[in-house]
Amino acid sequence: MEQSPITMELGEKIDITAIATLKTTLAQLPINAEPQLLDASHVTHIDSASCQLFYAYAQHLAIHNTTLVFLSPSDKFMAVVKALGFDTDFNYASM
């Protein structure tokens, strides 16, 4: 099965200073039956505000029968997501 194209590549630093821009960017992504694929392989810093935004976005997508998938999340991404308790709320895949 062929993997869908990456919807968005996440930068190295995802935190509250960029949350408004990230929210706007996510809102502009098309919602369809394909999963939303976010490349999280380069993330070196992520904070709780960003995790909360991704959680809310994943819930929004679920209403529209699609899913949010983080591709090859970095060790730092996973450590923070797990520490904040979001690890079981998100979907992951390898590239």
Task: Give a topology summary.
Layout: E1 8-9, E2 13-14, H1 19-28, E3 36-39, E4 45-46, H2 48-63, E5 68-71, H3 75-83, E6 91-93
Parallel strand pairs: 1-3, 2-4, 3-5, 5-6
Report on the structure:
By secondary structure, the chain is of the alpha/beta class. 37% of the residues lie in helices and 18% in strands. The chain is built from three helices and six strands; from the N terminus they run E-E-H-E-E-H-E-H-E. The protein has helices at residues 19-28, 48-63, 75-83, and strands spanning 8-9, 13-14, 36-39, 45-46, 68-71, 91-93. Strands 1-3-5-6 form a four-stranded parallel β-sheet. Strands 2-4 form a two-stranded parallel ribbon. The longest helix is centred in the middle third of the chain and has 16 residues, at 48-63. The protein starts with 7 loop residues before the first strand and ends with a strand. The model has no long low-confidence stretch (mean pLDDT 92).
Shape: globular
Radius of gyration (Å): 12 Å
Query: How does the helix and strand content classify structurally?
Result: alpha/beta
For the terminal residues, how far apart are their CA atoms? 13 Å
Strand order of the largest sheet: 1-3-5-6
Give a quick summary of the entry:
The protein is an alpha/beta fold and 95 residues long. It has helices spanning 19-28, 48-63, 75-83; strands at 8-9, 13-14, 36-39, 45-46, 68-71, 91-93. It is 37% helix and 18% strand.
